[in-house]
Amino acid sequence: MRIISKSIDFSAQDELLQAIAPLSDFLLLDIETTGLSAEHNAVYLIGCIYHQTDGWNLIQWMDNTGNEEKEVLSSFLLFASGYRILVHYNGDRFDIPFLRKRIELHSLTDTTGEAQTLDLYKVILPYRRVLGLPDYKQQTMEALLGTGRVEDKSGADLVKVYRRFIVDPEPELLTMLLGHNEADVTGLLSLLPLMIYRDLDSSEFRVRKAQANYYTDHDGTRREELFIFFRLGRALPAPVYASADHCYVKIEGDEGVLKVPLYTEVMKYFYANYKDYYFLPEEDMAVHKYLASYVEKSRRIQARPETCYTRKASSFLPQWDLYRTPFFKRSYEDTELFFEFSDDCKKDRSFLCGYAAYVFAHIKNGK
Fold it and tell me: Which of 121, 130, 122, 124 is nearest to 366 (CA)?
């Protein structure tokens, strides 16, 4: 078994981990295997990054012969026993289950069993719609953040290299194997800014201003939209451009803008207890039976669910659940919901901040 250890010059994002736990609690982890099946393939290389008083350090354990997996795992488990949080990329799906299966097959004691995991892939996955990337592999995310990593070898390519190395342990092959694993595990440090996206779910959208804008669409119809300009508490590591249901968001750094359709028209508010109402066809509205008793019988009919409404001419904003009441619709069968964008709303910065966060969440979730 070969063990490699060296220091890593990196401290740019330490505060992101320190907000969770002391740096000494974290062990960043990446493994290399001879295949995808934990039952039939082996771990031939484990790379870890850990923090001490002198900064970040790298340690790697490598199976030199193809027969030293148990030694590699035993040494790793002895080292890892003091760490509380394992950091990885998509490790909950592959690295961790694979390791634990191999540990079980070698009848070893898993000293990492009580450790929490921080999977950076799961951190970023909820934001895949607003990032719009072709895939969410580790190297794709590193390219997004501009880490500068350039590599043309995949894990499958490295398996072939490893098999050649076992037969003929040339230094060039060893450098290739160790270098790929080092790039993967040090890449985890570079990907720590992905955790900033997680703040978007709880971040305050600090609205600077909101303004209406008129435009003419492709068929010549004059339409209106609301622009909401906001700031975030912290700059995003890469920009966001996304849309859903005619709503658009752009965030660059800590500055963002939302564009939301604004509808100035007559909409209807439907009463729930229609049996208590009469519909007045001439006035095109429903009134409660108590008031309708003053209306001639010939001018009123029993309301039905689809006629039990009052109309209002105003400006309206979209909502996709009961974000704000009362809610309005264009017709009883219509599934689109709206609320009135009143003068009070226009002046209420707290409302605008909350609505900005609400619209962003809708765009992010795509529903």
Answer: 130
